[in-house]
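Protein Record: Sequence and Backbone Structure Tokens
======================================================
Tokens: labelled as protein backbone structure tokens, with as many entries as the chain has residues.
Task: work out the structure tokens from the sequence, keeping to the layout shown below.
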Amino acid sequence: MKNLFISLAVAALFSVVACGPSAAEQEAKRIADSTRVADSIAAVDSMNKAVEQAKQDSIAKAIADSLAADSIAKAGKKGKK
């Protein structure tokens, strides 16, 4: 009786281990993973574009401020002569 119980337990263990996701489940998981990765890449690209635009805006503002300060300084020199 003990051998029969052990044999059945081992057979049940092997049958549970042998069961796995079906091909359709594996494909669905692969598609979901691919979609998640693509969405992550798109989000990173979007953030990189936003950072680059912010840098360019900052540079443009710095140049404009510098030109404005320069023109104010030149106007001040003309008024003192």
Observations:
- The chain has two helices and no strands.
- The longest helix spans residues 23-80.
- Residues 70 and 76 are 10 Å apart (CA to CA).
- The mean pLDDT is 87.
